[in-house]
Amino acid sequence: MAVSETVRGPAANVSANSPDGPPNRFRQAIPQYAAVSPFFILFAIFGAFPVLFSIWLSFHSWDGIGTMKWVGIEQYSYLLTDPSFWKSITNTLIIWVISTVPMLALALVIANALHNATRFRTFYRIAYFIPNITSVVAVTMVFGSIFSNNFGLLNAFLQSIGLDKIEWLSQPWGIKIAIASIVAWRWTGYNAIIFLAGLQAISSDIYEAARVDGASPRQMFWRITVPLLRPVILFTAVTSTIGGLQIFTESQVLFGSSGAIGGPGDGGLTIVSYLYDSAFGKNQFGYGAAIGWALFILIVLFSVINWRLIGGNDDERLTSRAARRVQRRIAAERAATGKADADAGKEHADAH
Questions:
Q1: What pTM did the predictor assign?
Q2: What is the set of domains in the chain, with CATH numbers?
Q3: pLDDT range class, residue 263, cuts 50, 70, 90
Q4: Radius of gyration, CA atoms only, the chain
Q5: Where do the H-state alpha helices sit in the chain?
């Protein structure tokens, strides 16, 4: 027994230390790690580090050149009492509502029309998508001439039908309408193409069964198309929310050269515009970082609201609907039972 153990021990040591031993998994994976490392290195330098540095910067006062001074949460405390910041939030939300709601509704209608179209489908898809790939600066300049106070095409049209001209780019509400029009024009076709992809994923057998049951086109749209497109609607709502809360280029192109980044009365002052003006106009980089993180919190908040209103758990929705149906059935049965008992009691009383 001792002899066998003595012989087996050195043999095992030789096997473990010899080149024919088990391979090192980490060494085998080095080529794969090296192949994917450029992405992670670039992400760490240009993605992760700026994010982490902006968090650190938001707790400091820094003009971009001198020494950073630790101020703690003073930036965020001032942010909550800054009237310009709250005005930028109000402007951004108003522009977002008056641009996103009509845009998504019109995109859904266009997608439904394209889905039912029989001729020139490819042409219409390209035509509706072109605004999204057009330069936003060029589009904003064109819309700036359309909404121009003195020589705009829109005022020329109003005067041609006997109405007074409107100084669109001098009034806060006119500025918001102009910016919202630019946003809606650029993104309606993009969302329509996404809706169209969702419509094409719906089986035609569902519509055929609905037609056999006598459903009208309006009923099929509201009872079949819209519910089955709910995941796509959620996606477009969230992406439109993220983009709508980050509006910057439109107001910058319209009013960047006028000295007031938000235009007359700060009607076009958005959150990102205020961030840009604070950081790069006034060299308050710490305060600009605080505004950026406040914007991040707003985006997360409204994304969650959209998810709760439009998305949610399908199983929970089905369960709650089934529970409501059971409750209605029980209530109807109880009402019928109570009515039958009342009628029986009445007949018994009449018999005596």
A1: 0.77
A2: 75-314 (1.10.3720.10)
A3: confident
A4: 32
A5: 2-17, 25-43, 49-57, 74-81, 83-116, 121-133, 136-146, 153-160, 172-200, 204-212, 217-220, 226-228, 230-244, 249-255, 271-276, 285-310, 314-351
